[in-house]
Design goal:
mainly alpha, Ferritin-like_SF, RNR-like
């Protein structure tokens, strides 16, 4: 029997790329050890990675099934969440106050959206045996930043809908009050990213398949704590790191101002997830249930890592000129994408540790994929947005 590498080598370039994408998707799900996790992610994987439902240029209808939790006593049951609610009310901001009159020229080399060495274009040119013109390099960087911000926008729409569900389903009344502020936050984030892409860049990419799988899985899961884990810890935690990278490296003032405000909101969202899940996971779940969530979190971390391979830009620019394997190697080693992984997972892994989903049982799997280097970072409940922004402002950019 032919292995996948041998099979793809025998095919024409475009078909080879398609087959590689199917094998890559298949490899993610065939390596899932827990059958409960496979049952949870499998249907979403088919809809996202094989049927490409997010790329079909039409609205996606996702069936939802979960219990709304009413409490007619309105208890003050979580003081830490009540304090977070107070801070969230004070932290509301008006998107119209952003400096939207800023002239954004994505090809202005004096005020770059991304630095020249974000992608290491010389290694890409060497791979292709060619040389890029300055115009081509500027257009490639433009494609990449539009792709990144498009995925931010799609993720924020997922966060908006998941925040609505979580507010209904969460069992803490103080958590419901805080959740209402997050719904407003996420709606504002959708607005500002969409407005920036539409009015300033004029370009929107479809949702990445891996991100679609995660959002589809969260929306269809009936368990409130899985919605919390997926959105507040995984998606929001990784997004917080991703926003921080662009905030640190961009010199475009409007984008930087937007990201500064969004980072302050997102820091509260992840803090909320840690507060809601820590006691629940460590005291309310059976060991079997905890292990399922631990395995699920690991698989979603892998999906989120693969989300940033930017295949849509590859398909637009280089399909037929280089293989997906070569593109993966290039993107994995690009300086900006290395920074993405470092900052994103330094935000995620400590939060998994804080809520009890990094036991000795799962740690070897994180070590195998190089994520345990982030184990000793600071969890969201001990890291304020102000501290986070000070660290970003003080860090050395690319």
């Amino acid at each position: 029997m032919l292995d996948s590498a041998r099979l793809t080598h025998l095919l024409p370039n475009k078909m080879r790329s398609q087959v590689d994408s199917y094998f890559e998707a298949l490899s993610v799900f065939t390596q899932i050890r827990d059958p409960r996790v496979l049952r949870s992610l499998g249907p979403s994987g088919i809809r996202g990675m094989l049927l490409h439902r997010g790329r079909q240029n039409e609205p996606t209808k996702i069936p939802c099934n979960y219990m709304a939790h009413f409490d007619w006593n309105y208890p003050a049951d979580q003081p830490a969440m009540a304090e977070l609610y107070r801070r969230a009310k004070q932290g509301q901001w008006d998107s119209d106050e952003m400096p939207w009159d800023t002239n954004v020229d994505p090809f202005n080399h004096e005020i770059p959206l991304l630095p020249d060495n974000f992608l290491d274009p010389q290694s890409l040119a060497d791979e292709l045996g060619t040389k890029f013109t300055n115009k081509e390099l500027a257009e490639l960087r433009f494609s990449v930043v539009c792709w990144l911000l498009s995925q931010f926008l799609h993720g924020e729409q997922g966060a908006l809908f998941a925040a609505c569900q979580v507010t209904e389903a969460v069992q803490f009344f103080d958590g419901k009050m805080y959740g209402a502020t997050q719904v407003m936050d996420e709606g504002r984030h959708v607005e500002v990213f969409n407005r920036y892409l539409d009015q300033k860049l004029g370009r929107l990419y479809r949702i990445n398949d891996n991100l679609f799988v995660i959002i589809d899985s969260l929306m269809t899961d009936s368990r409130w704590d899985m919605k919390f884990l997926g959105m507040q810890i995984m998606v929001e935690g990784l997004a917080l790191g991703a926003f921080g990278v662009i905030y640190k490296v961009t010199q475009e003032p409007l984008l930087r101002a937007i990201l500064e405000r969004v980072i302050q909101d997102e820091a509260r969202h992840v803090h909320y997830g840690v507060l809601a899940l820590r006691e629940h996971i460590t005291t309310q779940l059976t060991e079997r249930e905890r292990q399922e969530r631990e395995d699920w979190a690991f698989e979603v971390a892998i999906l989120m890592r693969n989300r940033f391979m930017i295949y849509e830009v590859y398909e637009e620019w280089f399909e037929g000129l280089m293989t997906r394997e070569h593109w993966r190697r290039f993107i994995t080693n690009a300086p900006g994408m290395k920074m993405f992984r470092q900052v994103m997972f330094s935000r995620l892994v400590p939060n998994l540790r804080a809520i009890g989903l990094l036991s000795d049982r799962i740690i070897p799997y994180y070590e195998q994929v190089g994520l345990m280097q982030y184990f000793n970072g600071v969890a969201a409940d001990n890291l304020s947005s102000e501290q986070m922004l000070r660290e970003l402002d003080g860090a050395v950019a690319l």
